[in-house]
Amino acid sequence: MDPRVLLFTGKGGVGKTTAAAATATLAASKGMKTLVVSTDTAHSLADALAVEPGEVAPGLHLHQVDTQRTLERHWGELQDYARGVLSELGLDEVTSEEITVLPGAEEIIALLELREHARSGRWDVIVVDCAPTAETLRLLALPEALDWHVNRLLPVGRRLVRLVAPFVRGVARVSAPGEEVMSAGERFHRGLMEVRELLTGDQASVRLVLTPESVVLAEARRTLTSLNLYGYRVDGVIANRVFPPGGADEWRAQWVAAQTRLLAEAEQSFAPLPVHVVPYLPAEPVGTQALTEVGERLYGESDPFAPPASPPPLRMSADELALDLPGADRAEVDLARKGDELIVTAGPYRRILALPVALARRKISGAVLRDGVLRVAFSPGSESGS
């Protein structure tokens, strides 16, 4: 059985690392074998836990990505080929090495390592401290976007390589990629698709961390819409640094009033998701004991490790496609059809959905966005026959 996977994201500076660490330490305190890992290059988790990577408490392991070692294992043949071609073109070894470092490698490698940890059978709970919102969305969209390109380009690429390899070697005087390079690309692609399958499965969900501020709340709403667009379940919202009521200080009273209003707005915006509140603490929680106490206050009587109760955001039946887009504005949602693909745009984000055969043969008979759900109906007849 897959472990329970919890991903934490939010706007930079809202305390997502603290929320992730508190959840992980709470899981370990309940006897669950817990792994906590970060896809954020800042590596703030080790600072929050005040420890070095490894077993940081009974049942709690902190993992820090070794980008170089893992990159060589997953990406080695492709990188070696690119480095060799650049050297043949006259670039020195250091320059070739720098050019062939994969952009965003650390975040991608963290996802590939996450898949390996999930398949190991060692863990009951895996907590992921994600990068800030924009980077997280790009990262989570990557596997499916890469799948779209690879499925179209790789078969063509294999045929093209066989045709042009003699010309490349004879005229351009550089090496053409061999079968091992193409296979490495396929393995890399397959690994990322397995990551997506894990993170959109029944044991995985995302938790949005925010502070009760207008700008932060607006971004969290957009993030919820975007995560649903890409097929990721969100099972809760964490409101951090909330001033407790009381006190005669006018400055504090104004903050309490503003936060109370924004928390009510958040509960309305994210309903039916629970909004867990973390009070503004008198001191920064550092270390496993302090973080466990935060986790207990954060979740109260609820079970933070139960599987997500909500259905997957994307659902298909014999004649309809339904996609949850909570908070989406009708003016920002666009729908287009291209062959057997449906292109859904929500604000600045776009997803290309490959339709199953049963729906791909039919025309769209109608589409409506109502109560946060995009419903696309398909006519009974096939496209060719209608």
TrEMBL record:
Enzyme Commission code: 7.3.2.7
Residue ranges annotated for the ArsA HSP20-like domain, each copy included: 320-378
Catalytic activity: arsenite(in) + ATP + H2O = arsenite(out) + ADP + phosphate + H(+)
Function: Anion-transporting ATPase. Catalyzes the extrusion of arsenite.
Short name of one Pfam family: ArsA_ATPase
Any one GO molecular function term: ATP hydrolysis activity
Organism (species): Nonomuraea wenchangensis
Keyword Repeat found: no
Protein name stated in the entry: arsenite-transporting ATPase
Top EC category: translocase
Domain ArsA/GET3 Anion-transporting ATPase-like: 4-299
Keywords in alphabetical order: Arsenical resistance, ATP-binding, Nucleotide-binding, Translocase
InterPro entries: ArsA/GET3_ATPase-like, ArsA_HSP20-like, ATPase_ArsA/GET3, HSP20-like_chaperone, P-loop_NTPase
Family: Belongs to the arsA ATPase family.
Cited SUPFAM superfamilies: HSP20-like chaperones, P-loop containing nucleoside triphosphate hydrolases
